[in-house]
């Protein structure tokens, strides 16, 4: 999540999250909110470490919703959705990619700070460069 | 008149005596101009000392700079002329002949218009919606020969992407070897300029205690400082040491010199040399170039250089048939009219002979009968050479025509690309009183929302506004409760109920300030993560806490009803919510609504895009607002980049 340089390959520890959409009348909802995007001001993102990070972040999880059930956490940065990269997207593009009507399930790759911490701790004294 | 013109240009160089007389007259002209400018400058100084309004002060200071620059230029001109006089006196005795070789190119009109200087703000500047707007007043001085013109003054702040000057500046008499200097002056227009200005501003500055940047600005305003033009080496500005008058002072920010090679009948970009650096108060982040339209109309293109009666030999006809025409040499053609009156009557010429860079003109051998030389003009028309033969009535006429042609060719060689085609110069219209421009607001505020079909009607908007006002009056605490910035409100309302899951106001107060200290709250298990940027929060005060607790007591859930403005105003929302009977649930549900921002600005309602109104229905906790309102909010949200959009999926 840190050291994000646009255009450069990124290494991150990610978690797979599969969310089954919930049907509500005409809508298919996932039960979370996103913020960020390359057209947004990254300085206002409360979840990002790097204030220049224009990625898509999870800003809210609707309690009891499909996202909560799938273990998505607030503050997660979404790296991929169903195989599509989300690190260089406008806000609207990201929203559209998550709310495709013909998809029942979204498979996300997300990264969060706690994951990196967990990896570091589990590796004991080994310093990952 | 035209014949006179052709001959006068030669007389001038020949008649040294005439030259001297003319110089004396020019001398007194310049002296008069200098006196005029000195008077103007005194007037500007007095005005500057007397005026109190910032705009007036800026304008007066600008006139002061312009006058000083003009005085400097005139003095230089005077000096140069005096030197030339002395040189002339010296060389006069040595050579009298050779004056005929002194061919001077014709003068011309040079115009510069539509000046545009792009700015290069950092993207962080665009998004900054707090802090004072750093404004600078800028104007340009354009100098050619002895004339200096100034453009109108423009106030520039970070919402502008370019500095545009709409003026057209025309110099009427310019030599082809001219050098035109464009200088950009700027002056910081927000701080006090001197100790004696409006006490109110000074008092407010002192009360907020001079910070580092304010102090720096003060220092640079008070003293010449390191940003003075002299300290920059290299470019010597045209600025005289201005009489020190308290008030705004302009500094040279950028300059460039242009000449004939830069002229083109279209917009071009030129490089600017920038003086000053980021530390100066008058600094603006210039991109480093300037776009403008720079055109010239040499007189040989616009005026009749020569005219007279001619005889043209018919091509292909009998060898001795000549047609009498009245010829006018102008621009790139020799127009041949049937009669002289046709010229004024704007009748089409009988025919036109091209006179351009490819034309060859020579005098043929004397005609045996009339003892007059013929003039042969040859042009290439698409690979074929066509020659026109002309002659005139007398030898002197022929001579004059040849002279005119040589002069014309010389002019064209000097003015180069300006003689290919006539460039258009729009004369500046007579000075209209400057229209009162509305205060330049942010670029984004000026965007008109022309939404599609889904825009709610005016009555709808009004109804919503009325509700907002109603709510505010109901709560009675609105001035304190709704902070100015849309960012603060969400956090405050969030904190009121979610920071601790107990409804105890004391523990509430204690936990929430803790969260402020961290720049970014860690998702600890104590309380739900705040989904907003707390770093810009107003520190909580006791009075605010007191109000929060009273509000909670009243069951309004601290701003929960504020949601009405953003959501469809259903009646269920307006009713006070049942108090704490279902505390965790309601707490959490209010948390979701409270993250919706306040009602003050419709812009901030964008944050609520897709937000839920859990009170309205338990069964459908994920209902969405109606499409119409959502799209309106979408639109407004999208158009205001200061909001960090959040979308529900």
Automatic annotation (TrEMBL), chain A:
Signal peptide: none annotated. Keywords: Acetylation, Cell membrane, Cytoplasm, Membrane, Nucleus, Phosphoprotein, Wnt signaling pathway. One of its GO terms (biological process) is establishment or maintenance of epithelial cell apical/basal polarity. It is found in: Cell membrane; Cytoplasm; Nucleus. SMART domains: PDZ (SM00228). Residues 16-113 form the PDZ domain. InterPro entries: PDZ, PDZ_sf, Synaptic_Scaffolding_LAP-MAGUK. GO terms for cellular component: adherens junction; basolateral plasma membrane; cytoplasm; nucleus; postsynaptic density; postsynaptic membrane. Pfam families: PDZ (PF00595). It is a peripheral membrane protein. One of its GO terms (molecular function) is protein kinase binding. This is Tax1-binding protein 3. It comes from Champsocephalus gunnari.
UniProtKB/TrEMBL annotation, chain B:
It holds the Pfam family Anillin. Residues 12-87 form the REM-1 domain. One of its GO terms (biological process) is signal transduction. The keyword DNA damage does not apply. One of its GO terms (cellular component) is actomyosin contractile ring. Residues 523-536, 573-629 have a biased composition (Low complexity). This is Rhotekin. It comes from Champsocephalus gunnari (Mackerel icefish).
